[in-house]
Write a structure and sequence with these properties.
alpha/beta, Rossmann fold
Length: 271
Amino acid sequence: MFDFRYHALSLVAVFLALGLGIVLGATIGDSLVSEANRDLRSSLRDDVVKARRDAREAREGSERRDELIETALPELVEDLLAGDRVAVVSLGAIPDQVEASAREGIEEAGGSVDSVSELPLPEALEGVTEPEAAEARGRRLGVAIVRGGRPLRRLEGEDPGAFRGEAEGASEAVLYRQPPGEDRSPERTRLERSFADGLVRGLDSEATTVVGVERASTDPSQVSFFEDRGISSIDDVETAAGRIALALVLDGAPRARYGLKGSAERPIPEL
């Protein structure tokens, strides 16, 4: 028969075994967790290194592409716009980079900038309260900008900051639209839309080609605005590819969305 001491020793042995198991389990668990953490850190480090390498290679590839395009640009656009005079028009303030890029693209193809017109909104609609009147004002301005001469010089005299250039008359027009603010009232939105519609109609009625431009960084993009008004667009005018596209479109390339954004149909027109 088992006595009390035997039971006591048995219980002690059981508790020792349990304690040893807990200690061993914790030790092994800590070891497994530590090893898993090391593997995870190593994997993440490898992923970061690979991502940086891929980004560097993509950037270098893009730079080499841009260098190649820049080198080929003069021959691709040479004399495409020889003798042409182009009006540069902006709905709102035109960024220096956009104006400079448009001018460079035109001059590289042998053309010249006839005038630069910045039509600040809502100032351009001062005194206008009806969409029909806004459309009519926009159309008159568009016609005057392309025709040049006395009407545009008169406007330049009234607001030298908005109209500048020789204003001898243009055969093509480049249009930029400053992304409108989000705080416009519905009435102001309708007036500005009607004014823009009239402006594009006026430009289009006198110029052989009207093309909308923006920078790759323009946000929100205005490509849909240009498309809704039936004109081509170039969404990366500050790049060499954008300047090639500009020259080709002004020279009569088919209407389309050109550039690098997701909305573009192709980078440049067919050569």
